[in-house]
Amino acid sequence: MAMARIILGEIFLAILVTGLIYAAVSPTLQPTIFPRLRIPWFAEGKRVVDRYSLIKGTNVSESVNFVKLNVTVNFGGISLIFSNRSDMLFDASFERAANTSQLEVSHSVSSGAMQANFYGEAGGLNLTLGKNCQFSGDLDLRLGGVLIDLGQHSNISELGVVIRYIGGALVNIGNDASFERLSFIMSVGGLQVNIDADRLSRSGVIQPNIDIGAFSIGVKVDTKQVGASLDATVDTGGLSVNQPDFTGEVSTTHCSVKTKGYFDAARNLAIKANVGLGGVTLNGLQSIPGLGF
Amino acid sequence: MGKVENETPRKGTGSYFASFLNRIGGVFLAPDATFNQIIADKIGFWEPLVLVLLLVVIEAAVLSSLAYRMFSTFMTAISPLSGGFISPGFLSVALLTMTFVTIVVTLIFWVIIVGIAHLTAKYIFNGDGSFVQLMKLYGYSFVPYSLVILSTVLLGISWVTWPVSAFLNIVMTFWIVLLMAVAVKHGYKIDIGKAFISSFIGPMVVWLIMVSIFWVWILVIITSFTGGFI
């Protein structure tokens, strides 16, 4: 009986030692193998860039003065900037994984107006627009980000940005920017608008509509030249105005503020925002070097 | 046979290690006699404490190694999405924390179930025994938990062994309940029926009361959110 007890005690110790050794070596000797996920639009490995450009007098008529952009990218990013080239209509580069579909571009010209269509499945689209044309159109994205840089060469009549699912947008407005209307429709995401301009080429309106997310505005303007206003409503959430140049009514869910001397300013920039669930903030803006203003 | 098992064996003359193995084996084969001998030998508190800690730490280590294997490969699989946000280092820290928490919870649980059994046996059934003595005996009662370690190792080697693992877990549960009853019986010199009530029914009743209070509390919170609809 005593021997049986000791043998059982030894078995007990053996189990403990086995457990200890197994715990130590099993991660190395017996790795669990899961199939590795491969997602085409996030795929690592070889990347390729599709390029497409239209130059006046080279592959498009010099009479084109108006371009309507119809841009759709399902997943990824869209960047829109203006160049100082007067002969260029646009230059598009689309960086994507080698195994995803390439950028599809088509255009048609009628009476000096061009309609340009871009469709990319997944990747980053950089659109550089020429300065001697007026642009309008829509940027349509399901998931991802949008960057719009409007400086002295910009010339936009109406531009709509739609982010259908989740994403963000950054808009930089610099000196002598020219646009009439920028509208944003976003389901879930954030929008940042930086206005760092002592002059604008014309008055404009920015209209964000965000279901869930945040809208942040940074403003640094010469109020004699640029009068800015913000009319914002937040259904559920908060709203804050921390820019000393702005005066008006501010509550927790609604604000209507204008820069001093708004109606006497040379140009006006009106922001009319609606946020469902989220927040709106208006702050001052420090000059950000390297943004191309 | 019962007579033989209830005899208190004479104190062993072998080395400490041999007597330790004898006690462990005795818990499996003849718990009555072994618990009597533990009480007679006035074994210190450290041996059962180290025993419980060893069992818990090793089981936690085996579980952690399994979790590490699964999570690390899973994280590698989804790394295109997560961007490597959850690193193996993070996992190691998480598993070490879980092990530490398991040890603390086990020690607290040990004190609570001994406390309930002690109160029941001593003040309801008028038994004669001490809390510390029962802590020691409950520590030895935990010895069949080694079967759980064995079952986890088997599961880790192959998922096919799950019926054996399930069987070992069931055996372990019944065995520990039985040993706890025997421990209370000898610790407080009461019959096995009262000991079973003290060691199992008592803690179960307390557990049911605690669970009931918890769910009533949850119900009150939900009701306050729904304006009394539920």
Protein model, in words:
- The complex is a heterodimer of chains A (293) and B (230).
- Chain A has 293 residues and is mainly β.
- Chain A has a single domain, classed as Pectate Lyase C-like, CATH 2.160.20.
- Chain A has one helix and 13 strands, in the order αβββββββββββββ.
- Chain A has one helix at 2-29, and strands spanning 47-55, 66-82, 88-97, 104-110, 113-129, 134-150, 156-173, 179-197, 204-221, 226-242, 246-250, 254-259, 267-284.
- In chain A, strands 1, 2, 3, 4, 5, 6, 7, 8, 9, 10, 11, 12 and 13 form a 13-stranded mixed β-sheet that branches.
- In chain A, a hairpin with a 2-residue loop joins strand 4 and strand 5 (113-129).
- With 230 residues, chain B is mostly helical.
- Chain B has one domain (44-226).
- Helix content of chain B is 82%, strand content 0%.
- Chain B is globular.
- Chain B starts with a helix and ends with a helix.
- The interface between A and B is large, with 34 and 41 residues.
Write a concise synopsis of the structure shown.
The complex is a heterodimer of chains A (293) and B (230). Chain A has 1 helix and 13 strands.
What is the topology?
The complex is a heterodimer of chains A (293) and B (230).
Chain A: H1 2-29, E1 47-55, E2 66-82, E3 88-97, E4 104-110, E5 113-129, E6 134-150, E7 156-173, E8 179-197, E9 204-221, E10 226-242, E11 246-250, E12 254-259, E13 267-284
Parallel strand pairs in A: 2-5, 2-6, 6-7, 7-8, 8-9, 9-13, 10-13
Antiparallel strand pairs in A: 1-3, 3-5, 4-5, 10-12, 11-12
Chain B: H1 2-6, H2 16-29, H3 31-41, H4 46-77, H5 79-82, H6 88-124, H7 131-141, H8 146-157, H9 162-188, H10 192-226
Helix pairs in contact in B: 2-3, 3-9, 4-6, 4-7, 4-8, 6-7, 6-10, 7-9, 8-9, 9-10
